[in-house]
Protein backbone atom coordinates (compact mmCIF):
# COMPACT_ATOMS: atom_id res chain seq x y z
CA UNK A 1 0.00 0.00 0.00
CA UNK A 2 1.30 3.35 -1.09
CA UNK A 3 1.55 6.09 1.49
CA UNK A 4 -1.34 8.54 1.22
CA UNK A 5 0.21 11.73 0.03
CA UNK A 6 -0.72 15.31 -0.51
CA UNK A 7 0.75 17.88 -2.86
CA UNK A 8 -0.04 21.56 -2.57
CA UNK A 9 0.77 24.71 -4.50
CA UNK A 10 -0.36 28.30 -4.33
CA UNK A 11 -1.31 30.77 -7.03
CA UNK A 12 -1.55 34.54 -7.05
CA UNK A 13 -4.68 36.32 -8.28
CA UNK A 14 -3.34 36.08 -11.87
CA UNK A 15 -3.05 32.28 -11.52
CA UNK A 16 0.75 32.32 -11.46
CA UNK A 17 2.44 29.71 -9.30
CA UNK A 18 3.95 31.41 -6.25
CA UNK A 19 4.70 28.45 -4.01
CA UNK A 20 5.03 24.68 -4.32
CA UNK A 21 5.44 22.22 -1.47
CA UNK A 22 8.08 19.54 -0.97
CA UNK A 23 5.92 16.93 -2.73
CA UNK A 24 5.84 18.94 -5.94
CA UNK A 25 8.54 17.10 -7.86
CA UNK A 26 7.03 13.69 -7.07
CA UNK A 27 3.68 15.02 -8.16
CA UNK A 28 5.05 16.46 -11.42
CA UNK A 29 6.65 13.12 -12.28
CA UNK A 30 3.45 11.21 -11.49
CA UNK A 31 1.61 13.67 -13.74
CA UNK A 32 3.99 13.07 -16.65
CA UNK A 33 5.52 16.53 -16.43
CA UNK A 34 9.15 15.67 -15.56
CA UNK A 35 10.26 18.99 -17.02
CA UNK A 36 8.55 20.66 -14.03
CA UNK A 37 10.04 18.28 -11.48
CA UNK A 38 13.40 19.86 -10.81
CA UNK A 39 14.56 23.34 -9.86
CA UNK A 40 13.94 26.03 -10.87
CA UNK A 41 10.34 25.22 -9.92
CA UNK A 42 7.76 26.72 -12.27
CA UNK A 43 7.43 29.72 -9.96
CA UNK A 44 6.00 32.75 -11.71
CA UNK A 45 4.60 30.55 -14.48
CA UNK A 46 0.89 30.41 -15.15
CA UNK A 47 -0.65 27.30 -13.58
CA UNK A 48 -2.69 26.91 -16.77
CA UNK A 49 0.50 26.51 -18.82
CA UNK A 50 1.12 23.27 -16.89
CA UNK A 51 -2.18 21.74 -18.11
CA UNK A 52 -1.61 19.62 -21.20
CA UNK A 53 -4.85 20.01 -23.15
CA UNK A 54 -6.72 23.20 -23.96
CA UNK A 55 -10.20 22.03 -22.87
CA UNK A 56 -8.89 21.05 -19.44
CA UNK A 57 -6.91 24.30 -19.19
CA UNK A 58 -10.12 26.21 -19.92
CA UNK A 59 -12.02 24.26 -17.26
CA UNK A 60 -9.24 24.77 -14.71
CA UNK A 61 -9.30 28.47 -15.47
CA UNK A 62 -13.05 28.60 -14.87
CA UNK A 63 -12.68 26.64 -11.62
CA UNK A 64 -9.87 28.92 -10.44
CA UNK A 65 -11.78 32.07 -11.37
CA UNK A 66 -14.87 30.80 -9.56
CA UNK A 67 -12.99 30.23 -6.34
CA UNK A 68 -11.24 33.60 -6.65
CA UNK A 69 -14.56 35.35 -7.15
CA UNK A 70 -16.73 33.48 -4.65
CA UNK A 71 -14.00 32.69 -2.08
CA UNK A 72 -15.65 29.28 -1.72
CA UNK A 73 -13.60 26.13 -2.18
CA UNK A 74 -14.25 23.41 -4.74
CA UNK A 75 -13.41 19.72 -4.39
CA UNK A 76 -13.23 17.36 -7.37
CA UNK A 77 -12.13 13.73 -7.52
CA UNK A 78 -9.79 12.72 -10.32
CA UNK A 79 -7.44 9.88 -11.30
CA UNK A 80 -3.72 9.91 -11.81
CA UNK A 81 -2.74 6.30 -12.52
CA UNK A 82 0.60 4.60 -12.48
CA UNK A 83 1.00 1.61 -14.86
CA UNK A 84 0.40 -0.93 -12.07
CA UNK A 85 -1.87 1.15 -9.86
CA UNK A 86 -5.14 3.00 -10.13
CA UNK A 87 -4.67 6.16 -8.12
CA UNK A 88 -7.72 8.06 -6.91
CA UNK A 89 -7.10 11.65 -5.89
CA UNK A 90 -9.08 14.56 -4.64
CA UNK A 91 -8.42 18.06 -5.94
CA UNK A 92 -9.29 20.94 -3.61
CA UNK A 93 -9.08 24.55 -4.77
CA UNK A 94 -9.49 27.03 -1.95
CA UNK A 95 -9.10 30.77 -1.48
CA UNK A 96 -5.77 31.84 -0.04
CA UNK A 97 -5.36 34.68 2.42
CA UNK A 98 -4.98 37.53 1.59
CA UNK A 99 -5.29 36.80 -2.16
CA UNK A 100 -4.95 34.04 -4.71
CA UNK A 101 -5.56 30.32 -4.37
CA UNK A 102 -4.26 27.23 -2.66
CA UNK A 103 -4.54 24.00 -4.66
CA UNK A 104 -4.15 20.71 -2.89
CA UNK A 105 -4.31 17.21 -4.32
CA UNK A 106 -4.64 14.30 -1.92
CA UNK A 107 -4.27 10.66 -2.79
CA UNK A 108 -7.32 9.02 -1.26
CA UNK A 109 -7.10 5.41 -2.47
CA UNK A 110 -5.04 3.13 -4.67
CA UNK A 111 -5.77 -0.23 -6.31
CA UNK A 112 -3.10 -2.59 -7.55
CA UNK A 113 -3.49 -4.10 -11.02
CA UNK A 114 -1.30 -5.85 -13.60
CA UNK A 115 0.87 -3.16 -15.20
CA UNK A 116 -0.70 -1.44 -18.20
CA UNK A 117 2.10 -0.85 -20.71
CA UNK A 118 0.08 1.91 -22.36
CA UNK A 119 0.75 4.04 -19.27
CA UNK A 120 4.52 3.47 -19.25
CA UNK A 121 5.95 6.90 -20.06
CA UNK A 122 9.01 5.47 -21.84
CA UNK A 123 7.39 2.74 -23.96
CA UNK A 124 8.08 3.07 -27.71
CA UNK A 125 5.13 4.55 -29.59
CA UNK A 126 3.85 4.69 -33.11
CA UNK A 127 0.66 4.98 -35.16
CA UNK A 128 -2.51 6.90 -34.48
CA UNK A 129 -2.94 9.06 -31.41
CA UNK A 130 -5.09 7.64 -28.64
CA UNK A 131 -7.15 10.07 -26.59
CA UNK A 132 -7.18 9.67 -22.81
CA UNK A 133 -9.23 11.68 -20.35
CA UNK A 134 -6.87 13.68 -18.14
CA UNK A 135 -9.41 13.57 -15.29
CA UNK A 136 -10.60 9.93 -15.05
CA UNK A 137 -8.01 8.20 -17.30
CA UNK A 138 -10.61 6.53 -19.49
CA UNK A 139 -9.69 6.00 -23.13
CA UNK A 140 -11.61 6.95 -26.26
CA UNK A 141 -12.21 3.78 -28.28
CA UNK A 142 -14.00 4.95 -31.42
CA UNK A 143 -16.16 7.39 -29.48
CA UNK A 144 -16.82 5.08 -26.53
CA UNK A 145 -14.85 5.92 -23.39
CA UNK A 146 -13.68 2.94 -21.37
CA UNK A 147 -11.28 1.98 -18.58
CA UNK A 148 -7.72 1.77 -19.83
CA UNK A 149 -7.51 -2.04 -19.31
CA UNK A 150 -10.68 -2.59 -21.35
CA UNK A 151 -9.41 -0.28 -24.08
CA UNK A 152 -6.14 -2.21 -24.28
CA UNK A 153 -8.05 -5.51 -24.66
CA UNK A 154 -10.59 -4.11 -27.07
CA UNK A 155 -8.05 -2.50 -29.34
CA UNK A 156 -5.89 -5.63 -29.30
CA UNK A 157 -2.90 -3.57 -28.33
CA UNK A 158 -0.95 -6.67 -27.31
CA UNK A 159 -1.08 -7.94 -30.87
CA UNK A 160 0.22 -4.74 -32.33
CA UNK A 161 3.89 -4.09 -32.76
CA UNK A 162 3.93 -0.91 -30.75
CA UNK A 163 1.77 1.20 -28.48
CA UNK A 164 -0.12 4.23 -29.75
CA UNK A 165 1.00 7.65 -28.57
CA UNK A 166 -1.40 9.11 -25.99
CA UNK A 167 -2.84 12.59 -26.01
CA UNK A 168 -4.87 13.99 -23.14
CA UNK A 169 -8.32 15.49 -23.29
CA UNK A 170 -11.50 15.26 -21.27
CA UNK A 171 -14.29 12.71 -21.67
CA UNK A 172 -17.94 13.86 -21.92
CA UNK A 173 -18.70 12.49 -18.46
CA UNK A 174 -15.93 14.45 -16.75
CA UNK A 175 -16.77 17.57 -18.73
CA UNK A 176 -20.33 17.27 -17.49
CA UNK A 177 -19.15 16.62 -13.92
CA UNK A 178 -16.85 19.67 -13.89
CA UNK A 179 -19.46 21.88 -15.57
CA UNK A 180 -22.03 20.83 -12.96
CA UNK A 181 -19.59 21.83 -10.24
CA UNK A 182 -19.16 25.24 -11.89
CA UNK A 183 -22.89 25.78 -12.20
CA UNK A 184 -23.60 24.68 -8.65
CA UNK A 185 -21.89 27.74 -7.22
ZN1 LIG B 1 -13.09 11.44 -17.80
Care to describe what's here?
The protein is α+β, with helices and mostly antiparallel strands. The chain has one domain (6-183): Beta-Lactamase (2-Layer Sandwich). 23% of the residues lie in helices and 29% in strands. A five-stranded antiparallel sheet has the order 2-1-5-4-3. The longest helix has 17 residues, at 54-70. The radius of gyration is 17 Å and the shape is globular. Zinc ion is lined by residues 133, 135-136, 138, 170-171, 173-174.
Describe the structure in brief:
This protein is an alpha+beta fold and 185 residues long. The chain has helices at 24-30, 54-70, 148-154, 172-183, and strands at residues 6-11, 17-20, 74-79, 85-95, 101-112, 130-133, 139-141, 144-146, 166-169.
Helix count, DSSP H or I runs of 4 or more residues:
4
Principal-axes geometry comes out as globular
Distance between the termini: 36 Å
Number of strands: 9
Strand content: 25-35%
- Give the H and E element order: EEHHEEEEEEHEH
The second-level CATH architecture is 2-Layer Sandwich
Which bin fits the share of residues in helices? 10-25%
CATH superfamily: PAS domain
Which runs of at least 5 residues are low in confidence (pLDDT < 50)? Answer: none
Amino acid sequence: MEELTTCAYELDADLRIIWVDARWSEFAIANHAPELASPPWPLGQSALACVADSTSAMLYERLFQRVLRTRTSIALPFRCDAPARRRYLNLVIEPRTPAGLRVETTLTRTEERPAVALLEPNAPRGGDLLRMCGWCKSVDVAGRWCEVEDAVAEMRMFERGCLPPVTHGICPQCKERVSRELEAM
